[in-house]
Amino acid sequence: MTYDIVCFSHLRWDFVYQRPQHLLSRFSRHHRVYFVEEAEYSDGTPRLDVRKRGKVNVLVPVLPQSMRGTQQPAIVSWLLQEHLLAESVSTYILWFYTPMALPFARTLRPLATVYDCMDELSAFANAPAGMVEWERELLRHANLVFAGGPSLFEAKRRLHEHVVEFPSCVDLEHFRKARSITTEPPDQSSIPHPRLGFYGVIDERLDIDLVATVARERSDWHIILVGPIFDFKIDPLTLPRSRNIHYLGQKSYGTLPAYLAGWDVAILPFALDESTRFISPTKTPEYLAAGRPVVSTPIRDVEHVYGRRSLVATAGTPEEFIRAVERALAEPSSARLSEVDAFLSHSSWDRTSSAMEMLIGEAIEANRAGQSAAAETPPAVELPEEAA
């Protein structure tokens, strides 16, 4: 089926390569994809910057500071409509990662609307005011809701009649390379073993007390944290610092297998609170595909999907976490690889994107059928009040 995809995202394309990039890059093989980021602010007249990322068109509204607030939805909507008109975009679907973009799309007339819910954004630190109300409205407009994990599925299925669970998948070929890589990245090569590694955004969801305690209690272990520090969500001064904690900064998606290859245990040291109640970390299957043993705090989705299959060890206290890491270090590196590979063989981004496309096609056809039926139905005759 021929249609374009206009996606609104709170995440920037060039930030961390994760679910939106995996899915939309695959969709771009068969559809034109327009990825609309949140506005940036600069001097000058409003404009729409267009950047090509492979086959994906990344659209960035650039506005003067004076247009923050009430003027922003109207001007962003106008900039977007002008660009879509110039590109001859007429048959398209809308794809949302954030409900806060809904005001920018009010004048658009899509074939169908998809809400790909990958996080409970209202639970994050510094979440925009009105997030819950905007999500309720988006759910009223959406034809399909895709949930990024079991917890989100359970939460959203009560709010919409067409919710489908699509957990995060893995690029198996990319991450399996870690099993045979022998060349160390320069900034990791001098760090002693044993190494406990984590990659991802470093923000309020990280259990910094757990990290600090493990580093203190096992000073012979070295904890490697790869990823950007979100300083507007967590104060960098509160992060634990010691000689055996190493912050290596953000790395490109392409280099992650090389870092994973040098870790003895991959860890998921997430806090257990409202901000992590619904998370389903994409990095979990990536760690496993790389052949690393994985130890996590008892995040519900990690336990539900991986823990009950003994693919990931979970531990709720620092003492339990240390013991779980000790067991992982003592286990042969090849242990459970056959079970991991069998499980991950069904966890493909290609398979997920194809299944999503099928459901989108069905939603478009259902919308068209509904519109045809409405057009063929004569309007109801309103009787005068005295004749009723």
Sum this structure up briefly:
The protein is of the alpha/beta class. The protein has twelve helices and 15 strands. It has helices at residues 19-27, 72-86, 131-141, 150-156, 172-176, 208-217, 256-261, 283-289, 300-305, 318-330, 337-344, 349-376; strands spanning 4-8, 33-36, 40-41, 47-53, 56-63, 92-96, 113-117, 144-147, 163-165, 195-199, 222-226, 245-249, 265-268, 294-296, 313-314.
Extract low-pLDDT stretches: 380-388
* Helix-strand pattern: EHEEEEHEEHEHEHEHEEHEHEHEHHH
The domain tally reads 2
Overall mean pLDDT? 92
Tell me the CATH architecture of the largest domain: 3-Layer(aba) Sandwich
What is the strand tally?
Answer: 15
Describe it for me?
This protein is an alpha/beta fold. The protein folds into two domains: 185 residues, Glycogen Phosphorylase B (Rossmann fold), CATH 3.40.50; 172 residues, Rossmann fold (3-Layer(aba) Sandwich). It contains twelve helices and 15 strands. Strand 1, helix 1 and strand 2 form a beta-alpha-beta unit. The chain is globular, with a radius of gyration of 23 Å.
List the helices and strands and how they pair.
Blueprint: E1 4-8, H1 19-27, E2 33-36, E3 40-41, E4 47-53, E5 56-63, H2 72-86, E6 92-96, E7 113-117, H3 131-141, E8 144-147, H4 150-156, E9 163-165, H5 172-176, E10 195-199, H6 208-217, E11 222-226, E12 245-249, H7 256-261, E13 265-268, H8 283-289, E14 294-296, H9 300-305, E15 313-314, H10 318-330, H11 337-344, H12 349-376
Parallel strand pairs: 1-2, 1-6, 2-5, 3-5, 6-7, 7-8, 8-9, 10-11, 10-13, 11-12, 13-14, 14-15
Antiparallel strand pairs: 4-5
